[in-house]
Amino acid sequence: MKILVTGGTGRIGSNLVKKLLEKGHDIRSFVYPGDVNRVGRWDSYERVETVLGDLREYEDVKKAVEGVDAIYHIAAAFGGPFDNRQYLAINGMGTLNILECVREFNPNIHRLVYACTEAIYWRLTESGRLFNDLITEDMVAKYHHMPYFLTKWIGEELCMTYHHQYGVPSTVFRFTTVIEPSEYLNEDGLPRQFIFSPLYQRYKNYTGNNPTELETANVVKSLWDGQEKFILKRNPDGRPYKEHFTDVRDIVQGLVLGIEKEAAIGEEFTLGGNGVFKYEEVIPYLCERYDMDFVDVTLPQSNYFAFDLSKIKALLDYEPQHDLASILDAAEAMRRGEDVGIIPTGVRW
Fold first, then answer.
1. What percentage of the chain carries pLDDT values higher than 90?
2. I want to staple 173 with a disulfide (CB 3.0 to 4.6 A). Which of 104, 267, 271, 332 is the partner?
3. What CATH number does domain 2-180+244-273+307-321 carry, 3.20.20.60, 3.30.310.80, 3.40.50.300, 3.40.50.720?
C-alpha cells in the first residue's frame, strides 16, 4: 500500500515508517517545515516521499492525502511554541482538513488511523490521577485540559463522527505515555523517571505557602545528602505510585495492526504496553540493577493508574513485548552505539 504518515519524522512516526517499509509498503511522509532538525530524515530512501506542509493549510493536506491507500495521522502540536489558538487550529482543524480531503479526494481509502492520547481519561476537575480500577475505553473524562488534551480529544471526536456519519473507515489509538529508549537515561546512565535529584531541584528553594507542599519540601530537603538515589514515590494515601508506560516498539506494533485488522474499523483502543510501573516493585529492582540506595517520599499529588488492554488484545491480537527491563536494555545498548532497531528521536523542535 501507499501510506501517508503525518509526522513521519517524529519519535513515533519515524519508527512507524521504518516498520511499514519493512512490511513492503511505500510511504508518503508529511512533515511540518519548521521541524528543521529532522525534515530530511528520509531523503535517502527511494520508497519514502517527503511532502512538506502545514496541517492548517487545506491545499497542503490535499497534496498529502490524494492517491494514498491508508493514513496514519500522528502529527500534532505538542510541546512546541504554540498558543491555545494554534493548538486548536493544528490538532482540531488540521484533523478536519484530513477528513474533508478524504471525503472529497480519496473516498475509498482503506483506513484512517488517528493517534490520540491517554490524557483524555484525566479528569480536569480532580487533582492527580487516582484510579482504583483499571481504566477502560468507556472512562473518558467529561472535561479536558487545554490545550493539548482537549484538542486531541476533538480530533478523535471528528474521526469517529466522520466514520459513523460519512463512512470514513477510522480507527483511534489512545497512546499511554510513550518511552523511546534513547531518551530514557540521564547523563549518568540512570533512568531519569525514578531518580531523586529532579524532585530535590524542584523543592530545594520552595517559597510558597501551601502547607502540604511546604511539608513535602522539608522532607525532600532533609533526605538529600548530595548523592543520587532512586525514589519510591507514594500517594497521599500511602500507596506507592503505579503508572503505565509504553515502549515505542509496542506503539508501532499496535499501529500496524490498525491497518491490518478489519476489526479495528470504527473502534477506539487504549494502546499501552507492559510498562505498568508499580514503585514497590520497580525501585528494589533498580536498586539491585544499579547498586544504589533509595529514599521513600509521600507526595501531594496522586499517581495511581493502569489501563485495561483487554479490548485491543481481543480484537487486534495485540501482545506488547517490552517491560522496564527490556526498555533499559535497549536504552543502554543504544548508549553504547548498538543498533536495536529503534530510530532515536534526536533533538525535538
1. 94
2. 271
3. 3.40.50.720
